[in-house]
Amino acid sequence: MTTVPGTSPQQESQKPLVMDGNALRDLIVEQIGARVAAAGNPHICLATVLIGEDGPSQTYVRNKHKFAAKAGLVSRNETMPANCTQSEAEALVASLAADPSVHGILVQQPLPSHLNNDAVLALLPADKDVDGLTAESLGRLVRGEPGLVPCTPLGVLRLLEHYGIATAGKHAVIVGRSTLVGTPLAILLSRKGVDATATIAHSRTSNLAELCRSADIVIGASGQAGMIGKDHCKPGATLIDVGISRTEKGIVGDIDFEAVQNIAGAITPMPGGTGPMTIACLLENTLTAAALQGVKIS
Questions:
Q1: Fewer beta carbons within 10 Å, N or C terminal of the chain?
Q2: Residue 249 annotated among the catalytic residues of the structure
Q3: Among candidates 96, 117, 110, 109, which has minimal Cα distance to 46?
């Protein structure tokens, strides 16, 4: 449990463990940098594709390159105007896919609405798909084959591991069934070695609050601001917030932090929880991708 200055032991016992994604991201970046240095600083390149002038996307990409540099990785950012054609976008991604000096490729989402997103992503080789979004990457995940795992689900797993949250034999409820978070996270949690029993809940789930109260771990991944509150949390449960909503009050998550903080045993903040971990795991995936392509890494 966290220690809050100026509170009594009884009050301290009611405060949940806050799982700091920023601190863990920095630790993982440092560890990746140490591995790269120990391997003799081989050329390992992450390429991003940014189409259009979306402000948040520009910020996300800038942060990815900032932390890639801290980890000792080479990064390049390929940009195209929002009015580019489908063939132009596909030609850029195909050129990166064919470039042996590029080990990981991330196509920043969302693409402009006139572009066929699936057709662009289909050009990514599975060994360079550091976002883990292609059909082949997801197929490898389902089959338990070596590959690249979507960054946000992997980040959730790393938070649970780092903060010593028990998963074996525990019930985890994931609210949200997207192929980006909910479905791959359920697979990861169910894998041998993690050994949780994962349930995916969604908009048609009956008695959602009751289902969540039965869980040892609840992951909000629906993008519905504050939908998970005190009625969804059993005492001592771990709550992981993946959903992001932009409101008049700023960025908020799926979990009503104030409502559950005296009930939960551990919780991620929003922002500062799973978001930083997505960047950390992108870099982890880039290192994995390089190894899959024959780069020697200790």
A1: C
A2: no
A3: 96
